[in-house]
Specification:
Length: 409
């Protein structure tokens, strides 16, 4: 039985509504409580008159359905003049019905992974081409295959892959993705060749904003953060490094997760959408949108590696698929979903080759997370609350290199 939904138990649901009205009327009559059109008072008098167990029990189980059906009858004129207890009731009911059908989205709406133990990376380190394919449990030689890694001024010390590997759906998902239960990523969507064929390069145009960095959760800090040492300061370091590489960067330091001085993460994505949309309207030249966060994990988890002798927070690329296991979320369309996925996969491949251990698996979740604004959109988790601020800042140099690799073609 689904409260307020379309499946209301057939005759059982109708009987409950009828019994509720009957119980209310009988109680009201016994208490001398007036007419049916004042039914809330009638119900209250029924409770006072001793019919509390019947009236309250049925109301708790079927009250929402009763009000919905009563409202519908009022619209049709069947019950004459009818006043809803609250004009916003129907909107409330529609929202509640949605979350009853997609309860896991209410519980898991945020982007934090919440892992409780260190993740293991199954990729084979230091192997390339046919060797990596054979060691991963696949058979056969891949004549003429080329390894997939961009080019930066740095030796390859990690893992590279060939297209045949990535076209194997099971291999791709096992080695590159964590899929949350709030969504699904089927074979028709996760097409590695299509992702790698996309040209995401960007011509550098000095003086014209090209890259936007912002922070939906600007108040996220680290284990040893001093005042001002938060994800906004981490984003400032990334903006500086990308500017050094010749990109024009707009760093939005707006606070979207504080309202009236109080932390309000529940509506931060809505506020960020308004702010970022206004920036994009002002600067339509922006083609890259990066939302920099830090993850939330178990207190015994430390997401750290070493890059060039420096302790460096591991990062995680995050994609919102606008899709539940039942299908697309129609009210959260993302026309750039495939481009978003291509962006994160291309960066992930570069990180695997040049910075082994630097990236965690790409995380896929059901909602949209404002990644529909540009094709080159990415939400990036930099370490977690258990990392030091220094580790988070150190993570920006390899990230700038990987971004430049993809955007530079």
């Amino acid at each position: 039985m689904q409260v307020g939904g379309r499946r209301h138990g057939g005759r059982l649901g109708r009987a409950a509504a009828v019994l509720l009205v009957s119980g209310s009327l009988l109680g009201g009559l016994r208490a001398g409580a007036g007419t049916v059109e004042n039914w809330p008072d009638v119900l209250q008098n029924a409770v006072r008159a001793g019919g509390s167990r019947l009236a309250a029990g049925l109301w708790n189980q079927r009250g929402a359905f009763f009000l919905e059906e009563a409202s519908g009858r009022a619209d049709s004129g069947e019950w004459g003049e009818w006043r809803e207890p609250d004009p916003s009731y129907r909107n409330y009911q529609a929202l509640r019905r949605f979350y009853e059908e997609h309860a896991y989205l209410a519980w898991y709406g945020g982007e934090e992974s919440g892992i409780r133990e260190k993740e293991e990376t199954p990729a084979v380190s230091g192997q390339t081409g046919d060797a990596a394919y054979a060691l991963s449990g696949q058979e056969g030689l891949l004549a003429g295959s080329q390894t997939l890694a961009g080019s930066i001024d740095r030796p390859i010390t990690g893992s590279t892959y060939v297209l045949e590997q990535l076209m194997d759906y099971d291999f791709l998902m096992k080695n590159f993705y964590n899929v949350h239960t709030s969504t699904t990523a089927g074979r028709e969507l996760m097409n590695a060749q299509a992702f790698l064929d996309m040209d995401l390069s960007l011509d550098k145009e000095a003086g014209v904003p090209q890259i936007l960095i912002y922070h939906t959760h600007s108040q996220e800090t680290f284990v040893d953060s001093e005042p001002g040492e938060n994800v906004v300061a981490v984003g400032e370091e990334l903006a500086r490094l990308l500017t050094e590489k010749g990109y024009s960067v707009y760093h939005d330091t707006s606070v979207y997760d504080l309202q009236d001085g109080k932390l309000d993460r529940s509506k931060a994505y809505n506020y960020a959408l308004e702010g970022v949309t206004a920036i994009l309207q002002k600067y339509p030249s922006i083609q890259v949108v990066l939302d920099i966060h830090r993850d939330g994990v178990g207190e015994n988890v430390h997401l750290v590696t070493e890059v060039d002798g420096h302790p460096t927070a591991q990062i995680m690329f995050f994609n919102g698929l606008s899709q539940t296991p039942e299908g697309a979320i129609e009210y959260l369309p993302n026309p750039y979903r495939e481009e978003n996925l291509a962006f994160s996969l291309q960066m992930q491949l570069g990180a695997a080759a040049y910075y082994p251990g630097y990236t965690r698996k790409i995380y896929l979740k059901g909602l949209r997370y404002n990644m529909h604004l540009r094709p080159r959109s990415s939400l990036i988790e930099v370490g977690a609350q258990t990392n030091t601020f220094e580790e988070a800042v150190n993570a920006m140099r390899p990230l700038a290199e990987i971004l430049d690799m993809v955007l530079g073609g």
